[in-house]
Amino acid sequence: MTTGEQTSDPAFELVTMGRVGIDIYPEQVGVELEDVTSFRKYLGGSATNVAVAASRLGHRSAVITRTGDDPFGRFVHRALASFGVDDRWVGTVPHLLTPVVFCEIFPPDDFPLYFYRLPTAPDLEISPDELDYDAIRAAEIFWVTLTGLSRSPSREAQLAALEARGRDRTTVLDLDYRPMFWHDEADATAQVAAALPQVSVVVGNREECRVAVGETEPEAAAKALHDAGVGLAVVKQGPAGVLGSRREPSGEEQVVVSPVPVEVVNGLGAGDAFGGALVHGLLAGTDLRTTLTLANAAGSYVAGQLSCADAMPTAEQLATYLEQNGPAR
What we know:
The chain has helices at residues 46-56, 71-83, 133-138, 154-165, 185-195, 206-213, 218-227, 270-284, 288-303, 315-325, and strands at 14-17, 21-26, 39-44, 61-68, 90-93, 100-103, 113-116, 141-145, 170-174, 201-205, 232-236, 242-248, 251-257. It is globular, with a radius of gyration of 18 Å. The protein has a nine-stranded mixed sheet, with helices on both faces. Strands 3-2-6-7 form a four-stranded mixed sheet. The longest helix is centred in the C-terminal third of the chain and has 16 residues, at 288-303. The chain has one domain: UDP-N-acetylmuramoyl-L-alanine:D-glutamate ligase (3-Layer(aba) Sandwich). Helix 1 (46-56) crosses helix 8 (270-284). It is α/β, with parallel strands linked by helices.
C-alpha cells in the first residue's frame, strides 16, 4: 500500500475498510474439524465480503485492507479481481501471514469459528498515513467494522478515516463484535463510543447492540443509537426479523421486516450479504421497508449455500429468489 496514494478516478459507490482472510470450510457437514477429511478455500473477512456483495449487485466498490506477502495474499487479489472489487488499497505486510479461518458446520445455527490471526493480522496493521482520504471522503458510502477498532494502528487509522469523512455522506459502522478480537468487552464499548459521533448508519444484532449501547431490546437499542446522533439504526433480531429505525430532521420512521425462510447450510456470510444489499438500497434511495426486505433476502440466499463471498447474489438472482421465496408471514 503506497503511503498517501491519491486517485483521480471517479468516486467509488462503496469503500469498505477492515478484515480480510481465507475461509477454510469443511466439505463434510455436521462433522467436527478433527474428523473432516477435505476442505475448500474461499475469500473471506467481513469488510471484504460486503464489498464483494455490493459489487455483485452492480456497484463500483473497493476495500482498504492488508494481506501477507504469501500465496494466500495473492489469492485475495485474484479473487477480488474476479468479483470486480478494486484492490488498489490492498497492501502487504511482509512479516505477517494472510489470516485463515476454519469453521465447523452444524446447521441450522451452530457454526464455530477458529481464527488464525496471531500475533496480529495484516488488516490490523493499516496506519493513518497510508489512507487516501480524498477517496474516502468522495465515496458514496464508507463502511467500517468494529473489528478494525480492536487494535492499533488500525484503530487510529479507522478513527482518522471516520473523522475525515464525517456524517455528511452515508458512513456505516457494522458492529460485527467478535469477543476473541478484544481484550475485554468494555474496550469494545469504549471504541463504539469513539466512533459513533462520525457515523450515520449502524448495523448490528441484539447482542452487538448490548455491547455497543447497553441495550438488547431493539427499539431501545435504536433509540440509544439515535440519541448518539445515528440517523439509521438497523437491529437484526434473528427469527423475529430486522428492525429499521430512521431519525432525520424531516421525521422518524420505524419498520420491522420478516426474514426470508431458508434451509440453512452455512449461516456465516449471511450478515455480509445483508450488508451489501443494504448498501444497494441506500444507493438507490429505496424506501426502508423495501431495502430491508432485499437485505433479508440476500442474507437468506447466502445462508443456503456453503461459501460466503462466492455465494453473493447478483441483482437478477436476488430478485428471482425473493419472488420465489418471499418473506416469512
